[in-house]
C-alpha cells in the first residue's frame, strides 16, 4: 500500500483540481508550484511521453547535460543518489526521520529523501550541476543554439521567455499583486529588492531562485550568466548568493 507521504505525482495532480482559486483571473500573478505541475501534465498529454523523457530528449541530451534529471531514475538511484549533496532544510520544515522505521512507515519524505529525489516533481524536483545549468544558460543567451551549433529553441521562444509577460496584467486597475516582471518560466531582475539576482545586473537580466539555496541568472546586456548552487535554504543563503553574483559580474 502506498504511504500518503510517498504519493505519486498523479495524486498531486488529482488533488490540484480541488484547490480553490486564491484570486480571480487577471487580478494577480504569483509563482505557483501547482501551475508547474499542471504545465507538466499538459506537456505529457500533448506528447504522449513522460515529462522527464521529454526533457532528456529535447534539452538535456542535445545540450550534453549529463548530470541533470527531472527526478533521479529509479534504476540508477543507488548509483547516483550518493553523488547528490544533501540540502539543509529551512527552519519551518522539520527534518523527517531517516531511519529504517521511517522508511518503512513512509515518513522519509523530505528534500534529501530517496522519495523526493526520484519523484521528478515539475515544481522543484530537478537534480543538476552548475556546469550543466551553464550550458542551458549559454543556449538561452545565444538565441536558442547549443555550443555545438544545434538549434534547441526557436529564437522567438527565447525572446518571449526573457521578455516581461506580466506588464499589461500589472497595469490593470484591479491588479492587487506585486508588480514583478515575469517572462515564461523566468523572472526578470528586481533591482534594489532583497530578491534581486545582484546589484550590477541590467534590468533585462532574468533567472530564478530555488528554495534549497540555488539561483541561476542570465543577462543579455552583458552576455553573462551564473549558476550558483548551495545547500542552505533560500531564506539564509539569499544575500550570500547575491554577493557571489556581484563578484561574477565584475570579473
From TrEMBL:
InterPro entries: Beta-lactam-related, Beta-lactam/transpept-like, Diverse_Enzym_Activities. Residues 10-236 form the Beta-lactamase-related domain. This is Putative periplasmic esterase. It comes from Fuerstiella marisgermanici.
Amino acid at each position: 500500500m502506498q504511504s500518503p507521504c510517498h504519493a505519486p505525482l498523479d495524486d498531486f495532480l488529482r488533488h490540484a483540481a480541488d484547490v480553490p482559486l486564491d484570486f480571480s483571473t487577471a487580478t494577480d500573478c504569483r509563482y505557483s508550484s501547482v501551475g508547474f505541475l499542471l504545465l507538466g501534465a499538459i506537456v505529457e498529454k500533448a506528447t504522449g511521453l513522460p515529462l522527464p523523457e521529454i526533457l532528456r530528449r529535447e534539452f538535456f541530451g542535445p545540450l550534453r547535460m549529463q548530470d541533470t534529471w527531472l527526478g533521479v531514475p529509479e534504476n540508477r538511484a543507488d548509483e547516483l543518489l550518493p553523488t547528490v549533496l544533501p540540502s539543509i532544510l529551512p527552519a519551518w520544515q522539520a527534518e523527517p526521520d531517516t531511519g529504517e522505521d521511517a522508511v518503512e512507515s513512509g515518513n522519509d519524505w523530505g528534500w534529501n529523501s530517496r522519495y523526493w529525489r526520484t519523484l521528478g516533481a515539475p515544481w522543484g524536483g530537478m537534480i543538476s550541476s552548475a556546469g550543466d545549468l551553464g550550458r542551458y544558460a549559454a543556449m538561452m543567451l545565444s538565441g536558442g543554439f547549443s555550443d555545438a551549433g544545434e538549434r534547441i529553441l526557436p529564437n522567438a521562444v527565447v525572446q518571449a521567455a526573457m521578455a516581461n509577460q506580466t506588464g499589461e496584467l500589472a497595469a490593470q486597475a484591479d491588479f492587487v499583486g506585486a508588480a514583478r516582471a515575469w517572462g515564461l518560466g523566468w523572472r526578470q531582475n528586481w533591482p534594489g529588492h532583497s530578491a534581486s539576482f545582484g546589484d550590477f545586473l541590467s534590468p533585462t537580466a532574468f533567472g530564478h531562485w530555488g528554495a534549497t539555496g540555488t539561483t541561476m541568472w542570465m543577462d543579455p546586456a552583458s552576455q553573462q550568466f551564473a549558476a550558483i548552487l548551495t545547500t542552505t535554504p533560500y531564506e539564509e543563503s539569499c544575500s550570500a548568493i547575491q554577493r557571489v553574483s556581484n563578484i561574477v559580474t565584475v570579473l
